[in-house]
Amino acid sequence: MRMVMRSRFTRLGRLGEVSTVAKCSKCGSKAVIKIPYARMNLCEMHFIEYFEGRVATTVKKYDLLKEGESVLVAVSGGKDSVALLSALTAVAPELRLKVMPLHIHLGLGEYSDESLRVTKEVSRKLGVNTFILSLEEVVGATIPELSAKSSRPPCAVCGLVKRYVLNAAAIEWGVDAVATGHHIDDLAPYALKNILLGDMGAALKLAPVTTGEEGYLARRVRPLYEVTERECLIYAIIKGLPFVKTLCPNVFLGGMDALIRRFLYELDLRHPGVKLRFMRSLARMATRYGVSQARTQAELTRCKYCGLPSRSDVCGFCRLTERVLGSPAGPMVREALKDVRASSH
Ligand SMILES: [Zn+2]
Ligand SMILES: [Zn+2]
């Protein structure tokens, strides 16, 4: 036990969080993390309470989920989705939510196998039943294959597939909303980039919630809207939860995105809380202008193959799979999701 505790502290120590003499602002015991914008140092126990409390407050403040609702949680096995699943599971009894985790095996070689292994271990630790869907088993092709045969970048294909499967699962299972592990450090740089490029509509879609439509388009919620990447990492470590430590093999960190990310990071170091105020004002604007709802109704129709949302008569997923595999895979995915749900009972 002592060894475990020590190695855990060493790992936190290496993050350079707080000085060794810093005391928790709530109880006076040894602090492990500093929360600059709240001017607090917290011990392990009070940090967990803070993190989970913040997730619960976000859910209530932005009306992401109502009492009695069910939420599909996208779990990739990375630290953010692991933190999301753990925190939502912890606050579910208080908020009266039903948490339903889903992991999609994307066929990205070793990386995907490790992600699946970690997801299973986390689920076991948290005592939750995670649904697993293998892209290769269902459509007969992996992300690299779909990408190569369509000549589209793997990240674009991956994003399209994940969005499609998550929405299809929510619709097929009658779940009220889909929750993703996007935190403020994912969302703020992207929002600022869109504003700089003059696409206010795209920026406003990064609000904590985008509305859905019954039986067709699931509501999307972001319970980690007000927590940072660093907080997700430290929460997962303190909770002793495993997570995939390597980056996706397709990830590309460069260009304008990286510059904006660095700028926001440094700005927030000097002016703690500025990033949070920026995203809160964005959320208020999204509510005021009702952007997500207007876009949904005006721009989307139903795919003629699978019946799910589309900008034209065939949805992006059915178009991609029809081109690569010869027939649209949307209906197959919907069928497979029915079996996934049934076989886990
Ligand atoms: Zn404390
Ligand atoms: Zn379709």
Write down how many β-strands occur, each being a DSSP E stretch of 2 or more residues: 10
Instruction: Give me the strand/helix succession.
Output: HEEHEHEHEHHHEHHEEHHHHEEHH
Main pleated sheet: 6 strands, mixed
State the strand order across the main sheet: 5-4-3-6-8-7
What is the assigned CATH homologous superfamily of the largest domain? HUPs
Query: CATH fold name of the largest domain, please?
Result: Rossmann fold
Rg over CA atoms, rounded to whole Å, is 20 Å
Task: Tell me which ligands are bound.
Answer: zinc ion
Helix content: 55-70%
Mean of residue pLDDT?
90
Count of separate DSSP helical elements: 15
CATH architecture of the largest domain: 3-Layer(aba) Sandwich
**Based on CA inertia axes, which overall geometry fits?**
globular
CATH class of the largest domain: Alpha Beta
Number of domains: 2
Report, as a whole number of angstroms, the end-to-end distance: 37 Å
Taken as a percent bin, the fraction of beta residues is 5-15%
Written account of the structure:
With 345 residues, this protein is of the alpha/beta class. It folds into 2 domains: 42 residues, no CATH class; 298 residues, HUPs (Rossmann fold), CATH 3.40.50. 56% of the residues lie in helices and 10% in strands. It has 15 helices and 10 strands. A 6-stranded mixed beta sheet has the order 5-4-3-6-8-7, with helices on both faces. Strands 1-2 form a two-stranded antiparallel sheet. α2 packs across α10. It binds zinc ion (ZN) (2 copies). The site of one zinc ion has 8 residues, from α2. One zinc ion binds next to α14.
